[in-house]
């Protein structure tokens, strides 16, 4: 029965809509504009390009440049398949900063589920298995582990942002990092968790999020949604 359903999907226009989920629309010409206040204030925009039956590229543009991430679309939902231009980076760690380059080697679950999963009490999970390399001063090391995000729908409520008032689902999220750096016989774990809250409106997507950090919190709000042709 499942195989037959898949054949029918392949031959129907519905397949083209896998990437255009009501709570994460993928429309050519649309641009979401956000502002972030808190520990690291900034503004950025989101566009979705190269939209096909089963994938698209999300472009995040800010003052520091453009970051691209590829997403896959399946009947279960939408999930990132790589870090794109965000896989490498540099973080401060004591006297010497740490540079790193990570790649996604396996994806389990989804970031945005199919429409039928959106209901109070529903939950889902996204797990990215990653591998890569890092360096701190003269020390080079290999990195492996998982980045796991758990989503739970806790309410449906009205939320106000600079873009307007929206009826949105409120999600509680837990982000867990489980990484290990290996340099010869030396093995160092990097394990930590953070909590967040986000609001998603139908036919709009993310309208607000609050991400807690060690030093406070960052609040992201939708400023405008431009629906270009």
From TrEMBL:
Keywords: Signal. Residues 152-217 form the DUF3108 domain. Transmembrane segments: none annotated. Residues 1-16 form the signal peptide. It comes from Meiothermus ruber (strain ATCC 35948 / DSM 1279 / VKM B-1258 / 21). The keyword Phosphoprotein does not apply. InterPro entries: DUF3108-like. This is DUF3108 domain-containing protein. Pfam families: DUF3108_like (PF21347).
């Amino acid at each position: 029965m499942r195989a037959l359903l898949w054949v029918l999907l392949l031959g129907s226009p519905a397949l083209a809509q896998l990437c255009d989920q009501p709570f994460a629309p993928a429309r050519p010409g649309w641009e979401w504009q956000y502002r972030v206040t808190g520990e690291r204030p900034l503004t950025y925009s989101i566009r979705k390009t190269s939209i096909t039956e089963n994938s698209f590229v999300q472009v995040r543009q800010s003052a520091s440049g453009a970051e691209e991430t590829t997403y896959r679309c399946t009947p279960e939902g939408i999930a990132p398949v790589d870090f794109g231009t965000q896989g490498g980076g540099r973080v401060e760690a004591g006297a010497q900063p740490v540079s790193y380059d990570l790649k996604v080697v396996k994806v389990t679950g989804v970031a945005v589920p199919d429409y039928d999963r959106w209901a109070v009490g529903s939950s889902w999970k996204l797990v990215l298995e990653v591998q890569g390399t890092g360096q701190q001063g003269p020390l080079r090391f290999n990195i492996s582990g998982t980045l796991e995000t758990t989503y739970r729908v806790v309410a449906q409520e009205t939320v106000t942002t600079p873009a307007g008032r929206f009826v949105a689902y409120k999600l509680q999220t837990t982000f867990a990092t489980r990484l290990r750096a290996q340099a010869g016989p030396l093995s160092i774990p990097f394990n930590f968790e953070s909590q967040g809250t986000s609001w998603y409106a139908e036919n709009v997507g993310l309208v607000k999020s609050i991400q807690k950090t060690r030093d406070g919190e960052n609040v992201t709000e939708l400023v405008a949604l431009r629906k270009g042709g």
